[in-house]
Amino acid sequence: MITTQLSSELSHTELPEVWRPEVQLQLATGENVLSALEVDLDARLHFAKGLVLLTERRIMARAPGETVWQSWPYTHDLTLKLHDHAGVGHLELVNHQQRVASWRFTLGQNLLAIRLSEKFVALRDSCVTGRPMAQHDDHICPTCKAPLEPDQDECPICTKVVHTPPSTWTLFRLWRFAKPYRWPLLAGFSLMLLSTGAHMIPPYLTMPLMDNVLIPYQNGAPVNTELVWLYMSGLFGSALLAWILGWGKTYVLALVSERIGADLRTNTYEHLLKLSLEYFGGKRTGDLMSRIGSESDRICVFLSLHLLDFASDVLMIVMTGVILVSIDPMLAAISLLPLPFIAWMIHLVRDKLRTGFEKIDRVWGEVTNVLADTIPGIRVVKAFAQESREANRFRVANKHNLAVNDKLNKVWSLFSPTVSFLTELGLLVIWVFGIWQVSKQHITVGVLTAFVTYSSRFYGRLDSMSRIVSVTQKSASAAKRIFDILDHVSSVPEPANPVKLAKVQGHIALREVGFRYGNRAVNRGININIKAGEMVGLVGHSGSGKSTLVNLICRFYDVSEGAILLDGVDIRTLAVSDYRRNIGLVLQEPFLFFGTIAENIAYGRPDATREQIIAAARAAHAHEFILRLPQGYDSMVGERGQGLSGGERQRISIARALLIDPPILILDEATASVDSETEKEIQKALDNLVTGRTTIAIAHRLSTLQKADRLVVLDRGKVVEEGGHDELMAQEGAYYRLYQAQARNVDTDLDDATRKRHDD
């Protein structure tokens, strides 16, 4: 008989109870499960359950949607890689540089995935070397091994971030987003005041109830039934009124807080799109997504749930319960009658809330998908001046997210007031039973009064159990991180009174241009005059300043010295989007968005017709391979162009530039990362693209610049030579040395290839 064990180190969170019988059947005698991760996405990113396990001998897994278990014993070349993107975590098991298995999961499981990957390394090393597994400290930086505080989620040494404690005054800056909703806010606060007043009515009614009914009865007078029903009706009516007002207050404030959060996200994202590339160079994509996503969501929760709550004390609940039982156990039991109904309601609402929150997580993925598309491809967005379009995409996704939250709030806003209503009914039950007890002379009026007071305190503490201090600090921290973005001023500012150019000819002049990255000078004293329709090639060693010069011409950065003129006008006086609409950019590594081939080609001109898209694809020599795809121009392109070769992605990029028909064209190493055969196809497309345009080309292979009208040689940020290919070769200067060095490398590669064929 096979006996198995689950390690005592393994928490129930890591291995849900539903998996335990199946896991035990897979384990060998004496084998223990030391770590586990429940993965919840299949290969198509549909929700499905799977499991990855670590034992002291092997890694085991059952992929989502499958029934067969697989296992791999620990070896020295077995590696478990963990990474995430766009809200999806990814585990890859690699052996001999080949992937043998992979699993995907939502980022709610990310902490368990990190623990699993760290445990895997320790178990593999222990199994291979035979040494005992080293103890792991959860509070050290995995990169630099520096100790972290228990509440730190990132290492200040690695991230080089100076953490300053946020002030709660930062939350008052949110008023700029709340101001447009001041009237709904006023209505919510008015409902809050009325609701509080309604909750004050029942204690007030207890005074005449005691004076006019209970005390006279103890003195021998008969019970006034009409007064009893009158006061009971007043108590019930006040409870019902408080429930209605509480529902209205919660619902209105929840709607307002969601809209404030939506505006906060949209404004932050639109401001982010306006910042220069310099800002994005110093930020992590995940951090920016977290600020716009989870941090703004935390502020929404603070505004809708915690801002109006009062502090609750769990110890007070326990002490009040003890006092109730000590006064009268039977009356205490009666007072707790609403608790089963509250538990039943929680059970009834729980599933709706859980499924609702799961749907919110999925819809939130639509918002983060826009971020994951745009932020890594911000250069393409800016090059084609599509900031407004991306902001609109985000606004549409955010509106969908808002609608889902509104639907859930209808359930959520009903939940809390209903609990309050049931607690008020509990007090009503106490009064009814207490009066009966007084009539039987089992308790005195004083005992009943004290019992009602303590019961009110007990139920009041049940109604609000959050502590506002910690929530306020978390929300202030979230607000500070968001305002860090909103307060950042772009280093490429819009002109106050932009100049309008009727028609761009394409004449570019660089006058004593200099640029610095911080204190490091990259370009100095550059003077280049590019005539309209001329093709100029930029050549030089890596780090000579070629790409920086292109970034300056595109105005991704502003010059530190001198000026760049377009048709005699300083580009800093032109509206940024108007200027960039005149530039077509083809990068070394083209960025394609998730969508169809046609949508990617038409990115710079979303209103382009299908005929115009096809014409651009034909000119880019992309039409033939597009037709070979399963759905042609409607074929979906994976993220960053997955599923297409480098040459195919590049030709789609060229078609995208052709479609906008720009007077200025910039080619940044457009053929550097493809083979010679593909380069010929791309070169044919480029020949169509450069015709009649001012073209600035950077090329690693100098042979691709033979058709350039003029070559500009850069060295250490300066122009050292300028002229045609033959002229520069005759001078035997910097360009000559570059050309000869490249020719020797080509000859060496050809000789190596010849020797290899001979050996074969």
From TrEMBL:
GO terms for molecular function: ABC-type oligopeptide transporter activity; ATP binding; ATP hydrolysis activity. The chain crosses the membrane at residues 183-207, 227-247, 299-324, 330-349, 414-436. It holds the Pfam family ABC_membrane. It is a multi-pass membrane protein. Residues 508-741 form the ABC transporter domain. GO terms for cellular component: plasma membrane. Residues 186-474 form the ABC transmembrane type-1 domain. The keyword Repeat does not apply. CDD domains: ABC_6TM_exporter_like (cd18563). Keywords: ATP-binding, Cell membrane, Membrane, Nucleotide-binding, Transmembrane, Transmembrane helix, Transport. It is found in: Cell membrane. This is ATP-binding cassette domain-containing protein. It comes from Pseudoduganella rivuli.
